User: Fold these one by one.
Assistant:
Number 1:
Amino acid sequence: MSSTKVKKIPLMSDKPYDFDWDKPLVERVGLYHFWMPVAHVLLNREFETLDFYGTENVPQNGPFLLVSNHVNGFDPITMVYGIRARRRFFFMAKEEFFRTFYIRWLLEPLGGFPVKRGTADRDSMKFAQRVLEDGRFGLVIFPQGSRDRQRKRPELDSTANGFAMIAREAKVPVVPASVHLESDLDKKHPKCIVRFGEPIPFEDLGFTPGSRKKKELNAAAAVIWEKVQELWDKDEM
C-alpha cells in the first residue's frame, strides 16, 4: 500500500501508542449508557438536526460487520448513539487519534482500536477478527479511511477490500450504513441523516469455500459498497 501522510493533531504525542491487543473483550453496554448524555451534547452541538432510519436492521445479537462511508470525526459515536447503545461495538480509528489523550479518552471506552493507515496493519486486522469470532459484538469499519470533507457521493478505492476480507474470514453478515450531511459546505452545523440498511447475509457475498481469490474480495467489496451508496442516494436532492 502507498504511504499516508500524517496530519499533525494538536497535542499529539510523537511516540507510538502501545495498545493492548490481547486485552479481554467484555460487554460494556452499561458504560455506553453512561456516555449517552455526553454523546447527546456533542452531536447536538455538531449538527443542526440528526435523524436515524433503519435502526431495526442492526442485529440484536450475534456478530456482524457494519460498513459505512465516513464524513465526520463523530461517525463512530453517531453509530453507537443511533442504536441507543443496545449493542457493543468495536471500531477502527486512525492510530494518530490514540496518541492524542483527549481523543483517546473518548474512543477507547466506546470500543475504538488503532489502525495504521497506509500499511498492512496485521495487529489491527487480527484484533478485528477476534472481535467477530467472539460472537457477541459488532465491528464498525469506515473503508474510505479519511473523511470526505466535500460530502460527495461516497466512492471507494478499488484496492480497499480489507473489510470484505474480514467478512470472509469471520463469515458474518454485513450491515451497510450511510452518513449523509447536507451539501452546503459553508454551513457550520449541517443536517445529518444516518441510515442502516438490511443485513447482507454472508452467503450473498459470493465467496467460494476455501478460496482466497482477490477477484472475489473485490466483488464482495463492490456488493457491499453499492448498498452503502444506495442508502446515501436516498437523501441526495
Number 2:
Amino acid sequence: MLIDALQYNNWSENIFKQLQAGGVTAVHVTIAYHEDFRETVENIIRWNRRFEQFPELIQPTGSAEEVRNAERENRTAIIFGCQNCSPLEDDIGLVEVLHQLGIRFIQLSYNNQSLLATGCYESEDPGITRMGRQVIREMNRVGMVVDMSHSAERSTLEAIELSERPIAITHANPSFWHSALRNKSNEVLLKLSQSGGMLGFSMYPHHLKDKSECTLEGFCEMVARTAELMGVERIGFGSDLCQDQPDSVVEWMRNGTWTRETDYGEGSAGQAGFPNQPEWFHDNRDFPKILKGLREIGFSETEVEGISGKNWLRFFEQSFGPKIPLA
C-alpha cells in the first residue's frame, strides 16, 4: 500500500495511469487554495467528471475502508483536501457541509494570517484565533483533519494542543535538515508525534536540502533521523507534487486574490515558476526508488510498509469518521 498525503497536479488520464503504474493506492488532492465555497464546489464538480471519465483508474474516497477497496480493485483512491480555510468563508456550518462533500483535510492557514490561524510567512504569530478554536472543535466532531503544513510555529503548537483528535502536517520536512520557513521544528515534530499526529515528507524542491540537487540518499537519511525523533509509525509521504502545472499556477498559489504584487515565495530566487524536481522523483512512477532507498539505509520491510502507506491508513481510520460522544 502506498499513500501520498498531498499532490496538486494538472490532473489528466496520463497522470492517473502514472499513479497506477507507481502503485499509489491513495492520494490527498488539493481542491482549494484561495477559492471561496462556491468555487470549491465547482472544483468538486470537475472532479466528479473525472470520476465518470476514468472509473477504472480513480475513485472518490472518504474513509479508510474505501482506500482498502481501491487497493483491491487496483484503482487510486482520491481524497479531497483544502490548503486554506477560505472555502469556510466565515461560516462554521460549512465545516460539516464540506465534510459531506467529501473533504477530509483543511489547512487552517496558507502562508498568511487567516480567520483561524497564522501562516508561516507572517512576522508575528498570535496563535489560533477565537474562530479557529471553534472550527477545530467542529472539525473534530465531524471527522475532518486539521492540517498545519503552511502554518506558523505557535499556531501549530496550539492546534496540536487544542485538537481532541490528532492533527496532520501533510507536506513538510524537519527544519533540522533544511531551514525553510515551511519546515517544522523539533518541538513541533515531538508534540505532533506525542499527540498521535502524522508528518508527510515533502519532495518539493524548496523544502529539500540542496533543493533540486537533493540526493535520494540524503532524503532517506533525513527520513531515518526523523523516525528516531518521532517514531517510525508517525511518518509517511506528502510529496507536494505539482506535475504538469503551468508556471502561472505558482502565482495563483502564492498570490491568490490578496495582493497585486508578485509573491515569489521562499527559496525561489525571484522567479515565479516551478523548480525542477530532484532526479529521483519526477512523478508517481518513481516512488519505488524511494522505497528501495529506505530499505538500503536500514529500514525493515515492516517499517517501509508503514512509511509507504500503512501509517496513513491507520491515521485515516482514526480521523475520517464522526467523533463518537461518550455515553
Number 3:
Amino acid sequence: MKKYHVFGLGNALVDTEIQVSDEDLSRLDITKGLMSLVNQERQQFLIDELQDHLTLSSRACGGSAANTIISVAQFGGDGYMACKVASDENGQFYLQDLIDNGVAHSGNEKLDSGVTGRCLVMITPDAERTMNSFLGIGETLAPDDIDTVAIAASEYIYIEGYLVTSDTGKAAAIKARNAALAAGTKVAMSLSDPGIVEHFKIGLGQIIGDGIDLLFCNRLEALTWCDTDNLDEAIVRLKDIAKQFAITLGAEGAVIFDGFNVLRIEAQPITAVDTNGAGDMFAGAYLYSITQGQSVMDAANFASRAASLVVGKYGPRLDSDEYIGLKLI
C-alpha cells in the first residue's frame, strides 16, 4: 500500500466563474471554447468589463490537475498536489482550500512573494466554457519543486498538459515522469486543451517521452494530436503513446482502450448547464476507481456518472452529498 493514490502536478489557479454571452466573447476578442493565456493586465481588463455579469460559483482553488485530485480525495482517496502559489492572499486561500478538500500539498510556510495565478472561466448559454488564465507565479514551477519522495509514495502521478506552456513547468513534468518510472509509480496525463495540443505538440511529446500508462483527452484533442479527422484512426495512433487511454465524447459518452480492447461507454442523460471541469472530474473519478481495484469498464462508467453530474450544475466540483451518493459498482 502506498501513501497516496494519486500525485497531481499542475498550475495553481484561483478560479472565478461567470456567465457571458457569445456577443461578450466576440466584443472582447475572446476565442470561445479554449484556454488562452493572458497577462495580468489583460485579465484585469476582462474582469472590469464583465464585472456586472452573474458570478456562477464561489472562488475556489483550481487548475485542471487540482480539480482532478480534489475529486479523488472527495470520493475517499488520498491525493497530493504539487503546485506553486505566492505568499499573497490568494495563495494562502489556495493552499487552505486544498487542505479543506482533503488534499496534501507541496506548499510551505515560506512562500515566495508574487501573484498567485487566476483563471477567469466564462460560461455561455450553450454550457460551453472558455478560460482566460494568468499563471502568475505558477509559471515558475520548476524541477526543484517536485517532491520525488511523494511521487514514490503514490500509485499514480497525474500530469496536466497545460504545464507545457512554461519551460520550467515542462521540465518539472519531465522530472516527475522520470521519478515515477524509477519508483514504479504509474504515469497518467491529460492533453488538457485542443489549443495546447495544436501549439505545443512537440513539448507534450517531450513530457510523454517513450510512452505513459494512461492518457485522458477529449475528441478534439485526440484528433488534433493525431492530425486526423477520423476518430478510429486516432484511436489506433494513440496506442503508440499510451498503454491505456480514455477519450471523452461529450453527449456520446467515451471510448476507452484498456490495453487490449476498445470499449464504448454511454453518456449519462443530463441537461448540460456548464461543461467546466467535466474532463477533470472524469479523470479524477476514473483514477479513484481504478486505484480501488475496479475494472476499467467499471471505472469508466463511474467516471461518466460523475462527469454528468458536474455538467448538470455550475462549477467544476460536486457537493459533499453528491460525492457520497456516487458509489462504486
Number 4:
Amino acid sequence: MADESLTAVQFGVGPIGARVARSARARGVSFVGAVDVDPGKVGRDLADVADLDGETGATVTDDPAAALAADPDVVFHATVSAAETARPQLETILEAGANVITTCEELVYPWRDHAETAGALDAVARENGVTCLGTGVNPGFVMDALPAVLSTPMERVERIGVERVQDAGSRREPLQRKVGAGTDPDRFDAEVAAGAGHVGSPESAAMLAAAVGWDLDGIAETVEPVIADERVETDHLVVEAGDVAGVHQRTRGTVDGDERVTLDLRMAVGLDSRDAVDFTGDPDVSVTVDGGYHGDVATAAVVANRAPAVAAADPGLATMLDLPLPSFVRSA
C-alpha cells in the first residue's frame, strides 16, 4: 500500500513524465515540486502541465535546486536516455538527499557498459544515504525483470528468448518518430548509423543474464526497418506502403560463444502487440501476454509502483534485481 505521506518532485514533464505524475498521484503520492526546461511549462502548476485533477501547489521551475529545496522523499526523473547525459542531473538530485527513480534506459543495468557513471552515482547515493533506481517497462521489466521472475520455478535454464511486439501507432508521437515511422528506408539507415533506434536492449540482456547467473562474454545487436505493406495513418503521422513503419532490433547475449539470451523487439505502426518469453531447459516453458504491456502506460506504472520500495531501500545505485519483488501498489 502506498504511503500517503510520500512526497515527490517530477523532474521532466514531457509525455512520459506527465504520465508518471498521474500514475503516482493516483497512488497517494503528493507532489511538492516539478522541473522542466520548457519555457511554456515554467511557472505553471504541475496539475495544469501534466493534466492532473485539481491543483498540486507544485509550480514547474527550470531551477532544480528550487524544486529540491522542498525535501521530497523521491524524485521521478524522466528526461534523457543516455547515462552520461543523465549523470549531472541525477547527482544534483542525490546530493540534495532525495531518492530518485529514473527512466534513463542506460541506467536500468549500467554496470557492464557504463561502469564509470554507475560507480559515480552509486558513490554519491551512498554518501547521501539515498537510492537511485533506473527502470521502466522496456528496459526495466518486460525483457529483463519479468523473465527473471518467470525463471524461478525452472529446474534448469539453458536459453531465454524474449519477444516484444508493440503497435507504435498507439504510442506517443516522439516514440513513433524515434522508431522511424513514416521515413524512407535510406533515411532510416542513415539515422540508425547515427545512433537512432530503441535504447536499452544491451542493458536488458545484461540484467537478465546476471539474474540467472550467466557471465556474458558478448552482446551483439542488429537494427533493421519494418517496411509497411499498406498505408497506415496514426494520430500523429502517415506511413505509406513501402515506407518504414518502425524498427526491428535483435539482441543476442553469448556465453563462451553460445547464444543464451535472445531479445527480439519490433516496434512499428500497425502491428498486433504482444509479449512472450520462451525458456529452454527443464522444463521448456513459453509464456505469452496477449495484447502486451502498453509501453507508455506501463512505464509510468512501473515507476510509480516502485516508489515505496525505493524510498525504503538501502542507499546506492540499485537495479530491479536489488529490490523486493515488484507488484502493483494501490493507494491508501
